Structure formats: C-alpha cells, structure tokens
Amino acid sequence: MVMVLASFSGCHAVFGLEPDTEDAGAVPVCPSMYTPAASGTYWVGTDAKGWLDAQQTCARHASPETGHTHLAVLEGAAALSEVADLVKAPTLWIGSSDLTIEGEFRWVTAQELAFPQLGSPVWALGQPDDAEGAEDCVAVDLESSRLLYDRECFNPSAFLCECDSHPSVEANYGL
C-alpha cells in the first residue's frame, strides 16, 4: 500500500539552517508517484520495512532522468508535526542514523545540515538512548509524541522518501 503526501510546509528555519546555495533554484524531475509540496517532493512507503531496506527502496526510485531519491531529511519540529498529521502509521523512518559512528547522527544526503542537537525539543524524552547498544536509526513516533527517537534498524516501519537534488552518501549510513 502506498500513501502520498498532499501537503508539507517549509522547515529550514527551525534550526537556523542555511539553504544549499549550489543547488538553489534547481528543480529536479521526480518520479510521478512523488507529490510536490512546499518544502520538497515526497512519497510515503506504508509497506513496513527496516531502515536500510527503506533507504534502498527510496534510492531505487531514482533514474538518470530524475532527481535523487532517499529517506527524507526533515529539519525541525514543524515538519515532524506536519508529517504526523499526514501519515497514518505508528512510526515513520526518516533519513538519519548513527550507524557509522555511535552517537553521531548523520543525514543520508551529502548535505551539511546540523542534526537537531541531543536533548533538543524534537527528541522524545530520554532519546536517543541506544537501548541495549542496538538502536541506531531515527524514526518519528506518529502515535503519541510526534517526536524523534532511535530504534533498532531492522524493525519494520513506514518510511518517508524525498526527491531532490541531493544524492545520498552511503558512507553516512555505514555501507
């Protein structure tokens, strides 16, 4: 089953992030199943997958004729709240993990964006906690808190793909 996002507002300002000026104004051609929105172009995979399978599914949507596709880079509390309003699933994988270096969360893209600082209001209380040394992938709790938490990467969840001009970088997620 596939669900498409109908709307999504910009969220770059939440963490004071600067837009990538190299690609400013570049509008990628995205696969037709992706839905354009204010802050990007998205597709929701509701066929639950582990984090790496979800990233690979997103990446397979790209072709030489389209923009890059990857797990979504959500940059703030407003974006998290909007996703929670639009997606009907208990959890949703997004494009960040600390698979490469424990405690150093990275986005799947080549973008140099600051991930929300540990303890910031977008993390659920006590998160990330790397429970039993096994939680390395970032999800959004859509059932209750609408906040980020780390969980075991093999746990199946819905996932949010993004199409843009930023390629994913396998070194950012341990491959």
Topology of this structure?
Blueprint: E1 2-3, E2 35-37, E3 40-49, H1 51-60, E4 68-71, H2 77-86, E5 91-97, E6 106-107, E7 137-141, E8 148-151, E9 157-164
Parallel strand pairs: 5-9
Antiparallel strand pairs: 1-3, 2-3, 3-9, 4-9, 5-6, 5-7, 7-8
Describe the protein in words.
The protein has about 180 residues and is an alpha+beta fold. It is about 10% helix and about 25% strand. The protein has two helices and nine strands, in the order E-E-E-H-E-H-E-E-E-E-E. The chain has helices at about 50-60, 75-85, and strands at about 1-5, 35, 40-50, 70, 90-95, 105, 135-140, 150, 155-165. Strands 1, 2, 3, 4, 5, 6, 7, 8 and 9 form a nine-stranded mixed sheet that branches. A hairpin with an 8-residue loop joins strand 5 and strand 6 (about 105). The longest helix is centred in the N-terminal third of the chain and has 10 residues, at about 50-60. The radius of gyration is 15 Å and the shape is globular. Mean pLDDT is about 80; it is low at about 1-25.
Round the mean pLDDT to the nearest integer and report it. 78
Distance between the termini: 28 Å
Residues in β-strands, percent? 25-35%
Number of helices: 2
Kindly state the percentage of residues in helix. 10-25%
Strand and helix order: EEEHEHEEEEE
Structural class: alpha+beta
Which outline best applies? globular
Main pleated sheet: 9 strands, mixed
What is the alpha-carbon Rg in Å? 15 Å
| Low-pLDDT regions | 1-24
Number of strands: 9
